[in-house]
Amino acid sequence: MSDASRPAIEMTGVEKRFGATEALRGLDLAVPAGTVCGLLGPNGAGKTTAVRVLATLVAPDRGTVRVAGHDAVRNAEEVRRAIGLAGQHAALDEGITGRDNLHLFGRLHRLGARRARERADELLTRFGLAEAGDRLVRTYSGGMRRRLDLIASLVTSPPVLFLDEPTTGLDPRSRLEIWDTVKELADGGTTVLLTTQYLEEADRLADDIVVVDHGAAIATGPPDRLKEAIGSQVSVTLANPEQLAATAVVLSALTGGDAQVDVAERTVTVLTVPGVSVLLPSLVRELDGAGVLAEDVAVRAPSLDDVFLALTGAARESAAGSQESADLGRAA
Amino acid sequence: MAAAVHTAAGPSRPSAGGRLASDTWTSMLRILLNYRHSPGLLAASLGVPVVMVVVFGYVFGSAMRVPGGGDYREFLMPGLFAMVATNGVMPTMVGAARDVGRGVTDRLRSMPVSRTGLLLGQTLADLLVSVVVLALLALVGLAAGWRARHGLADALGAFALLLLFRFVMTWLGTLLGLAVGKEEAAGQLSVVVFPLAMITNAYVPTGGMPGWLRTVADWNPISSVVEAARGLFGNPSAPGSAWPMQHAVLATLLWSALLLAVCGPLAVRKFATHGR
Lengths: 332, 276
Prior knowledge:
Chain A has about 325 residues and is of the alpha/beta class. Chain A has helices at about 45-55, 75-80, 100-110, 115-125, 140-150, 170-185, 200-205, 225-230, 245-255, 280-290, 305-315, 320-330; strands at about 10-20, 20-30, 35-40, 60-65, 70, 85, 160-165, 190-195, 210-215, 215-220, 235-240, 260, 265-270, 295-300. Chain A has twelve helices and 14 strands.
């Protein structure tokens, strides 16, 4: 069906404007087949528009979009055969049963009446909704609806799956269930593109993360590399506040970062320069050498929150700053 | 790829015609399943006209005199049949808006389906339901003294016109629902339908209305349907001299063709390009 060497999902220079709003401003994406890509960004970053363009719901103003080897504009029908979509809502008919929802979607996907029924049964059993299958969807809990919604995108076992904020608004347990399902699908070879505002979600599920802000990718890379690019946070708490200045000198020299002193907390913190890793033993040795008596020493790997804030914060401050952070992200 | 996730038999690729027929049927099935699980929906579409039989037929009707003579309840029934036909705008409007709001429309549009078939299925399902509602209302009318006095063929012709108009209204409803896109807003819009259905000849003859209002009422498509039904059922009427009232069957057909030719393609287009 598709050229194996090409990414399963590919966007190049995609622009989309709705009236005065520029939803996408030259978004580039490339998701290799069989991997999970996490599109991470705040509300209004253009994540949903990106998914809608990929799912052939919205035509881009400019740029090329290829999904499963087909051009999403010229050959939308072929793309539609190859994809599954689960959006931010539970896109289901609430007045009929869960089983009938799946059965009808199967028929629309041309599985045939008998096969559509079998497939509905298979999926309900597999994803733990067999008992609820014969109840009207309006009686389902929020978590069950979203699970059924996700399942509804799987009736044809699409090779490419788009999930637009699949766990927004869900309780922690339902979120874990959705995560397990996505992992299972990815292990089975499905290419998944998911959007999320939850950093933990992207970290847990994605092979690659694309940080999106103002309609463009500002950083791309595996979660770990993005974190490396930001550096670690080192903090030292002292017993004696008189040693704060000396500690700051040691930390700055060791990390290449700009140490911040918090006198009230008797703490010095510093963010390591990207690429420099600080190990706890060497840190303790250096502090000893300088005669500093530390009460507490911590080296914390940056969370995806830090990555995100560093990238989007910089991008928002100035145009020049955004160039810098983009380089930083791509270097990762 | 894991065998458990992936289907053994892939989807087939039928012709465009086969796809249209198959998707129309699937879409019909969906609406009919909704009615099966919520019979109250049927009762709701029957409830209002039955209340109107009582309110207009017996309360107001006790003081009504039809110009040229005749029983008011026999004058009223074709009006109530036409009201059922007109109300066809509601379920598809609310349904289409709900589907847009819940993302169902987006999901359907991301699938390799016939857009025309999906919408046609919904309007045809509504037509089937309307046959039941009209039949039940006819029974209520018979109990209230209404009769079809020009024989079976004319009576069936009248019901055919009523169903045609209902079909047209469901397409108008689909278009409005897709345009509005919010279930609550669609509910509010349905309030507009009521006065439009009142400024007609359905409940009172238009002869007593002020001149300008009478013109509006006489040229209201709903009035054509009512007058055509009265003629075919052989029920009392006071049509006046306006062209649509003198050629009510033809006027009904023309109005229906015009509205369908506008609303049908626009609805399909709106569905296919929603959010673009």
